[in-house]
Write a sequence for this structure.
């Protein structure tokens, strides 16, 4: 597919979560229809899309039916099989390509790819068997972080090792193998960059943002990241380099650590819209979701410019979404609800954005105050 997708064409989105929902909303504004593939009935994305196929990602007949009904395919969910995406790619253009998902799905493939592209990560070692752990710990030092290579998210599938004693028992509890051991980064900040790359190789990168987590789940994003200029420039350059090295067509988030010396190390990449880019809906003329749709549809990419500074706060679990009436009544909070009916602990139910004039992002106390009814838990 080289020509731009015409209005009223259909974009197939694999995955039915909030990332698909916000992509479908952006697609609708550009005149496209979206067709969601998800095993879930009443998924956040299907609720705002033209069509949905409800079925298992592993079911070849389901994949075939879905592909036949769409013009181009993308994904908002990474824990699908790359083989399933290959099958779809034989029927319709898939953007980003299945090979990009293969790299991002596997921490060993991901780190190998990054290091080969000349991009720094935390020091790491693949752990294929329990007896490989002790020598790797001796080489990387303590503390260290042991992670599964696949299917990890929001801190699941990883353990912090503070001592060599007992480490093997911890490792045996993590599945599936192989595992990856990483040196612990004493980071000054966690930052990320969302970058889009078009079929013509043009790149648009949003400004680096700072991400603060609570219980391993993203809590706050500060845009732009309050880091020195050279750090922000290094982060943006890394994101562009990763997108180019992957020959990406689509959207990519690059999560990074800034260490105490101001070095930028890549933690992981995600070839899809990202929670740390939600602020762009309200603070940018073209959001990450519009960039995603434009890249997938073969449209030109505008500059990833930002008219405002922003703070994004996630609404996680039953307690935060219970504040919805207060959020709606609070001046300045821009509300986003994902339409999920069941608020389980740790589940992302929505988010709010607060805008500030460019250059006027407040410090910690100001951020807390700006969040109104959500300020209680912020430090
Ligand atoms: P991940 O699943 O790789 O995104 O890791 C989840 C969180 O664990 C990160 O956001 C960090 O806060 C922390 N973390 C992961 N890896 C490391 C590391 N090598 N050093 C320090 N903290 C880490």
């Amino acid at each position: 597919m080289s020509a731009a997708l015409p209005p009223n064409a259909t974009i197939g989105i694999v995955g039915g979560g909030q990332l698909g929902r916000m992509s479908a909303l952006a697609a609708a504004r550009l005149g496209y229809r979206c067709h969601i593939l998800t095993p879930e009935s009443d998924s956040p994305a299907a609720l705002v899309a033209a069509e949905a196929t409800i079925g298992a990602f592993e079911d070849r007949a389901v994949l075939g039916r879905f592909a036949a009904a769409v013009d181009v395919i993308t994904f908002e969910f990474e824990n699908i099989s790359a083989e399933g995406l290959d099958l779809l790619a034989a029927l319709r253009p898939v953007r980003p390509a299945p090979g990009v998902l293969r790299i991002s799905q596997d921490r060993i493939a991901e780190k190998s790819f990054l290091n080969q592209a000349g991009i720094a990560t935390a020091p790491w070692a693949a752990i294929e068997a329990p007896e490989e752990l002790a020598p790797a710990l001796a080489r990387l030092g303590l503390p260290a972080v042991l992670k599964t290579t696949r299917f990890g998210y929001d801190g699941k599938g990883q353990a912090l090792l503070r001592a060599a004693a007992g480490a093997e028992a911890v490792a045996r509890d993590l599945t599936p193998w192989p595992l990856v051991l990483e040196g612990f980064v004493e980071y000054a900040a966690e930052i990320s960059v969302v970058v889009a790359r078009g079929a013509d190789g043009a790149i648009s990168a949003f400004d680096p943002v700072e991400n603060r987590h609570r219980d391993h789940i993203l809590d706050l994003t500060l845009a732009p990241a309050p880091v020195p200029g050279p750090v922000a420039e290094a982060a943006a350059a890394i994101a562009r380099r990763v997108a180019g090295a992957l020959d990406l067509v689509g959207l990519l988030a690059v999560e990074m650590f800034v260490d105490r010396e101001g070095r930028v190390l890549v933690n992981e990449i995600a070839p899809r819209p990202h929670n740390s880019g939600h602020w762009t809906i309200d603070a940018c003329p073209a959001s990450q979701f519009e960039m995603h749709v434009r890249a997938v549809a073969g449209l030109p990419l505008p500059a990833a410019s930002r008219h405002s500074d922003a703070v994004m706060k996630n609404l996680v679990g039953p307690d935060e979404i219970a504040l919805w009436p207060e959020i709606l009544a609070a001046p300045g909070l821009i509300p986003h609800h994902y339409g999920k009916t069941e608020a389980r602990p740790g589940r992302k139910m929505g988010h709010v954005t607060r805008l500030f004039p460019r250059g006027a992002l407040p410090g910690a106390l100001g951020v807390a105050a700006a969040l109104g009814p959500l300020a209680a838990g912020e430090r």
In short: The mean pLDDT is 95.
